[in-house]
Design a protein that fits this description.
homodimer, 2 domains, Rossmann fold, 16 strands, alpha/beta, 9-stranded mixed sheet
């Protein structure tokens, strides 16, 4: 039985998520927006019966059993943790800091019977599902190098807000880089042990952000990860070098490319399509085309994320639909999802890359095992 | 009047160079090979009237006024310096070390009336000539980021030799990375002040290299350059970040891509073609197609190098042909060539990247101004 859904957020992802959920048979019962006006406007547009700017109104809504949180990073932790405490299943975006991510992990551990996933849709994109499968089957031989690049137009909102602020989770590294950190760990079955990075903010002001306000979030980012011990138990990726290049000063472009190179061949996901070449082969072959699938290309939601989101919503349906209880779910269909533990790892890598950009040195990735004492400075 | 040419080397570059020289009207008078047999074999194949394995036989040959040196890096310095001392014009490949490059600079300064250029053919490739021109005209606005990538099959020779040895100038960084270091400095008008890099040798042994022998040269390399003060006086590139990714574990592939991104647009050279997009434009435009031009695609000589070599030989013809003396030349046509001073800068960057890969830290690029005391260890 499919649970009723409450959606947090009125941005572009929330806007595409609602029709995807409905397409799979979910009922979207409630919408939360930062302001009453934003909530009302999108609820009317999408025909959602209830809207509010009070988070409790959604969390305590009797018809809401699954909460999807697609809001600014600094608000995510609070709502996700509260939702779990109230007994609701949670799909959410990343948090703003490792400390927030740690608090989310603590909550998820406390309620293991509830679904708690970080909605990195790339893991569900069929091209990456196939890439992971082929890696496990040895298509590329011994994995050596992963190289990911995303180029696109500015990530800044029209008006000044969290997207402009590094400390609020804005910037290419936090917004897009984190999805790649998660994906590369998922693909290789390994985790970064050391990272080196360089962040830049080339565009500090623009037509909308001026005066005393300046953008502090990165629009160019470049980092390397040396992968070590296993993250998921497969561990084929130990010793692999990953390089990631992000550039969001490219209006009109959208490039999303992930390449894995090994001793026997290589696999390349370009956008939503997967290509491969074995060392003996005389040309690259298309291994998986774009299926079209659910959803149209939407402004501000790149196609790989949109398609991935569609597949993730399908997986959610599969997880819930055979259950008798509205809040019960099967683990199998969402086993490949990013857990809150993965979210903490990703946030730790993001912060290590930022540290490296300041220090100029390789920084170790050490995942928090205990919450830092909030009174440590007293 | 075109000078007679002596060619050093029997490798793939020497093999394509000879017909290119003849195509422009140069007479190739003499060929040097490492062994008598190698020299005889290629001289017969190409119909060169004189061959030898004694370098003096070419350098002192009365009909040779221009010497083209395309041999293993450790031998380059000795022959280039000697050729200048004998009064011959020199086009050569890079040296093996910064100390060697410094000795070549000293010789070039001592004989300023002789031509002395490092034959980095990429500078002459029409796509890069046009890219440099467009950068100067402000096509991309304020330059922010350069991103170069070269992927291809193994650079190792069939048998064990200098290509396998890091200290002899083998490896992707030294062989290919150096041409990009030179090109990026030429394009931006700036020089690297700090670099960070990572080198890997994934393939340490193969069918031909086995037993106790191991490859020490890199087959994967990844480095960043922060550009500072002007190298050529134009200085538009100060503050620019350059990233370079080299991967030579990709049999069957050849990718050669150089992208420059600025505040107003971007330019991308893919292989021998130049594309551009201004920020307002709704799609990428082809700015310069591949002209076909001289030479066919040849094994082991990537098309951008082959086409660039063709353009460089044309420039050499233009430099020499209007002169009455066989050894005189006009500076204009070869003004864009890489000088021995540029060669020293490039070698300095290459060594700084290697240091960085060992230290894990950003390393400064400090170009030698004095030859290190050879007795410093006594």
């Amino acid at each position: 039985m499919l649970p009723g859904v409450g959606v947090f957020g009125t941005g572009s992802t929330a806007r595409v998520l609602v029709p995807l959920l409905r397409g799979e048979g979910f009922e979207v019962r409630a919408l939360w927006g930062r302001s009453e006006e934003e909530a009302r406007s999108l609820a009317q547009e999408l025909g959602i019966p209830f809207h509010t700017s009070q988070s409790d109104d959604v969390l305590l809504h009797p018809d809401v059993d699954l909460v999807c949180i697609y809001i600014s990073p600094p608000l995510t932790r609070q709502i996700a943790v509260k939702a779990l405490g109230i007994g609701k299943n949670v799909v959410c975006e990343k948090a703003a800091t490792a400390v927030d991510a740690f608090k989310m992990v603590t909550a998820a551990r406390y309620y293991p019977q509830l679904l708690s996933i970080v909605g990195n849709a790339l893991r569900f994109l069929p091209a990456f599902v196939a890439m992971r499968q082929l890696l496990a089957e040895g298509y590329v031989g011994e994995l050596q190098v992963c190289d990911a690049r995303v180029y696109g137009p500015s990530l800044l909102d029209q008006s000044y807000g969290w997207t402009c602020e590094e400390l609020m989770g804005g910037g290419g590294l936090h917004t897009v880089g984190s999805t790649l950190v998660d994906l590369l760990s998922h693909l290789t079955g390994a985790r970064a042990i050391r990272v080196h990075g360089l962040l830049r903010t080339f565009v500090r002001q623009n037509g909308a952000i001026r005066g005393i306000r300046r953008v502090t979030s990165d629009d160019f980012c470049f980092f390397q990860m040396l992968m070590g011990g296993s993250g998921s138990g497969r561990g084929t990726g130990s010793g692999v070098c990953c390089t990631v290049t992000l550039n969001f000063n490219m209006p009109g472009a959208f490039v999303h490319e992930v390449m894995v190179v090994g001793s026997a061949g290589r696999l390349i996901a370009r956008g939503t399509e997967l290509y491969g070449q074995r060392n003996g082969g005389n040309r690259e072959e298309l291994l998986l085309g774009d299926s079209g699938g659910t959803g149209q290309e939407v402004k501000d939601v790149p196609l790989p994320h949109l398609r991935g989101l569609g597949s993730m919503v399908k997986a959610l349906k599969d997880a819930f639909q055979a259950q008798e209880e509205r809040r019960s779910w099967a683990r199998g269909p969402v086993a490949m999802a990013s857990t809150f533990e993965d979210g903490l790892y990703v946030q730790t890598v993001v912060e290590a890359v930022k540290r490296s950009s300041h220090s100029g040195e390789w920084e170790s990735v050490e995942v928090m095992t205990q919450e830092p004492d909030p009174n440590q400075n007293l």
